[in-house]
From TrEMBL, chain A:
It comes from Marinobacter nauticus. It holds the Pfam family PhaG_MnhG_YufB. The lineage of its organism: Bacteria, Pseudomonadati, Pseudomonadota, Gammaproteobacteria, Pseudomonadales. GO terms for molecular function: sodium:proton antiporter activity. It comes from the Bacteria. This is Na+/H+ antiporter subunit G.
TrEMBL record, chain B:
It comes from Marinobacter excellens LAMA 842. Coiled coil: none annotated. Belongs to the CPA3 antiporters (TC 2.A.63) subunit F family. PANTHER family: NA(+)/H(+) ANTIPORTER SUBUNIT F1, NA(+)_H(+) ANTIPORTER SUBUNIT F. The keyword Membrane applies. Keywords: Antiport, Cell membrane, Ion transport, Membrane, Transmembrane, Transmembrane helix, Transport. This is Na(+) H(+) antiporter subunit F. The chain crosses the membrane at residues 6-25, 34-53, 59-82.
Length: 139, 90
């Protein structure tokens, strides 16, 4: 019975890993690739560690596997955020089908600070124009 | 039954490793390569877990902990290096 659970957990984990790597191979630009790899990759590693914990059925092993899972759960989003931020500042090209780049107007390229567009921003940042809906729409 | 499953899982993880490696070679920019290194590290963590089941040696989990830690530190270090003036791709 426990062998069956282990087998299912391992196969699910490996499927998530393969999904993540197919995503990293096929998707068009850096943020989408990161989106595929970090979430699915972390899920795959967590499933595999759950399989290990079930297989050994020991308190010490369970604690270690749990520690690995918690560690991956904490660090994967941080690493993804940090790399995505660095890639954005490097100016890696986005996919040509990108609809909207919300950060473009609000990020200061020099100081790497984010402005919401509602506070008085320095000259290096051009705040986005919040245009009032004029009468042109009604005509 | 578990032996067959473990072999299948080894094969799937190897295919995943291969795809990640292709992206590591092709990756047009350095952040792409760092992302694929991150994925490769997490695949290797899975590999080590499966190997621990295969051989029945639970001490191998320490290796997995260390690999996860190094991968995180690598990613953060690379990101800091890139933000503090790596090569610009305009």
């Amino acid at each position: 019975m426990s062998e069956l659970i282990v087998a299912i957990l391992l196969l699910t984990g490996a499927s998530f890993m393969i999904l993540a790597s197919v995503g990293i191979l096929r998707l068009p630009d850096l943020p989408t690739r990161m989106h595929a790899s970090t979430k699915a990759g972390a899920m795959g590693a967590m499933m595999t560690m759950a399989g290990v914990a079930v297989y050994f059925a020991d308190v010490v092993v369970f604690t270690r596997a749990f520690a690995i899972v918690i560690f991956i759960l904490i660090t994967a989003p941080i690493a993804a955020h940090v790399i995505g931020r660095a890639g954005y500042f490097l100016g890696t090209p986005l996919w040509e089908g990108t609809v909207k780049d919300e950060l473009k107007d609000n990020y200061d390229d020099k100081t790497h600070k984010l402005y919401s567009g509602f506070e008085p921003a320095p000259e290096s940042v051009i705040p986005p124009k919040h245009e009032k809906r004029s009468e042109d729409d009604e005509d | 039954m578990l032996d067959v499953v473990i072999n299948i899982v080894y094969f799937m993880l190897s295919v995943a490793l291969l795809f990640g490696f292709i992206r590591l070679i092709k990756g047009p920019s350095l952040p792409d390569r760092v992302v694929s290194l991150e994925l490769i590290a997490s695949i290797v963590v899975g590999y080590v877990g499966v190997h621990a089941i295969d051989t029945g040696v639970p001490s191998l989990l320490d290796v997995a902990i260390v690999i996860a830690l190094t991968a995180f530190l690598t990613a953060v270090g690379f990101a800091r290096f890139l933000e503090r003036g790596g090569p610009k791709s305009e």
